[in-house]
Fold each of these.
Amino acid sequence: MALNMSGLGVRCGLLSILGNDRMSSLYRTELKKRGVDLSLVYCVSHRIPLLTVTNGENREASRTFDDFGTKHDLSLLQPDTSILNRYDILHVVNTPKLLADYVAQRFRGSISYCPGSLFIRDRRELSAHLLKKARYVFCNEEEYDTLIQSTPIARLFKKNLTYVFKTQGDRGVIVFSPTTTRHFSPIKSKTVIDTTGAGDAFALGVLEGISKSESLERSIQKGLHYAASCVGKEGVVFTEGPRLL
């Protein structure tokens, strides 16, 4: 997502870890080439995680995940908050609770939260601190259903939250706010090659629009366009940045 956001001309950085394996080296090179700030990317001695999608379903049961100790290392991070607070929006994805709590207590800008598959595998990894501070929450159907089992949707909006975006694949997106629930139809791709990363592409468009002070409707339409563009190609990185169809 950082690669694509940078390709759109938005100043961005990455908070994560990379290993000493070949894939980490390729990531690091490409991130630098795209102008992504790596000041908060930490190096560890082992390889980065491997996620394998075993079938076409967008559910946790369709994936296998080899962690290689990454969750433990991420949990121990205490990133430099002076660097963190150079940015206006922090998008937290699939992050261990300890790290999510740490940044939630220190980041001064707007927070976007995607609990991700880590939360599906272990509900204890949901960061209540981050959820209270988040202005935007992005979930697929499985994540949303799991989230509201522990936190009813009405209770979510009692804090800082403005919108919850529930992506539904080829059935579009439902957007919840404190007063309304709206459905946005998907933009159909002429060819569907790979649905991997479509949810991230949607979040990319929405957050790009928000970062540029565009309207919610315009931001959502960008997200839908980017998601449609994503499923029409292999891989999740746009060579020259995503484009409106």
Amino acid sequence: MAGEGNNIDDLLLENRKFPPPADFQENALVAGTFLYDEARADDEGFWARQAAELLHWDTDWHTICEWKLPYAKWFVGGELNVSFNCLDRHVLAGRGDKVAIHWEGEPGDTRTITYAQLLDETKKFANVLKSLGVTKGDRVNIYLPMIPEAAVAMLATWGDGHFSARTIFGAAGLGLLIIGLFARFLARKLPEPVLS
């Protein structure tokens, strides 16, 4: 039979290497395997250090990882504002003019959005939600294609400077139930994911 040796197991045998170009290596933020080595030696300690150094926490966690197979809870007890960590902290640190999203559409149109611009748009949309009477505990359905406005809508529901709500790690910041419905769902199929 032709192609008999090309079963799925053969696809797992990959020995080629694709080294990055020299200019990419020179400008890399991380060179070498020291992060991998650290994570391998102490995985929980590694992720605790990453979370402490790279994220702003409103309330520190008391347990790094609670592992009860098949479930894992990371940074138990910790609270953070997802939107603040994605946007505000970069603007406050003077990086507002850095690119947050470089988007390219299907027909080749492009948009470049800085952290400051994304924060402004997120605040505007959060105020739209507020003006519509959206409050903590409300269900918010986001039905958009993969465009920058989808990120704006999700960041606005996760909390911004105009709302005092905080994000409990892994939950929505305004206390809203966020259901991301991407354009792959047909309109006639919407009630199923919205109601479940």
Amino acid sequence: MRERKCLNLTELQTLADPELVGLAQDGDSEAFGELVNRYQNKIYRLARRVTDNQEDAEDVLQESFVRAFRAIGGFKGASKFSTWLYRITVNLAAMKRRAQRYHIESLDEPITTKDGEINRDIRDTGIDPLEALIAKEIRESLDRAISDLSPTNKAVFVLRHIEGLSTEETREILNISIPAVKSRLHRTRLVLQERLMSLAQEQPEAVCLA
């Protein structure tokens, strides 16, 4: 076992992932906590997109870090920590997706908190109501199109276009070939383009505002 280092939070924040992983493997819970802080938003976004459900995404977020914490002692560093963590998340989210019925969160639905349900506070941004409505319809149409994708295709889309990972990183996370990544991404783009074209035919004004 390496000599334990006593680092404060500010010092932990300056360390690279491999250094934090090494400390976590030596039992430093604060080092692992910094890894959680560093990746929790990205893990939630990925889980939210794949599961299409806020509650499921929160469960996946928590379980991903629990599994990572339990298994980090066996992490050999053959891949980046982020790649390893994304792979855990995709697998858990895909299982949730297959186990739960399809769900789309509406902006009109209340938010459930520990204190009960509260209405969503949609702030007045000064945007024209018609433009806001059309923008919302475009976004919801694209969200539905993404929701209809398989878990793997959604993961490809999120990792490449939302998280900005490379094709190689996406391939490693999903354990598929580079041609498969490119093919799935191409099919996903076609689906979204078709949905936008369909929306444009139904609402020509949306094209002018999009």
Amino acid sequence: MKPPVMSELARSAISPARAEGTRAADADLMESFLRNDGDAARRLYDRFASRIYGLGLVLLRSKTDAEDLVQDTFLKVMRIGSAFDPRRGSLDTWILLNARGIAIDLLRRRSLEGRKLSSLPRISEASDEAGPEWRAEVRDLFQRANDAMGRLPSGQRSALELTYLGQRSTREIAEMQGIPRGTVKSRVHAAVASLQKAFPEDDDAA
């Protein structure tokens, strides 16, 4: 039986020397990014874009919203990047927490808008029919997301959970599971691709 995710997280010890080196490299990367260094921007995008997109798929259940989350997160990082302090935590955690905060804010706005709409008087038969259809669509999206996660192979699901829920870097996951970083990346990308199939393009066009 595969150990639970939290057990893997508890075993994930990174040496102080390596952690210090990573913090220094992350600080240099952010400084270069805030100076509008093109290479630093590409490195940040390559490192985080797919992870933010996957987080958006999991939380927002929409490919379009996941794409917007990537853009909004990098815009926010550009605005508040000077607030990043490598002594307080890793760059991976800081950026993914910002992405998660943006996604949660969007979910809260959706909930508020839904409550406002539900309090409006019904003015036509068409509006009477919209409520049940919308609720059924939301239930369907959640069910497809849960089903897609459940169908993932254990290796892919573990890599996805550690990346987005455990907020671990590919290097940390590779060390925890004793596999190459390339294997971790392949598993995460394959898992995200499987989740994408649960949300065909016609959902975004609706």
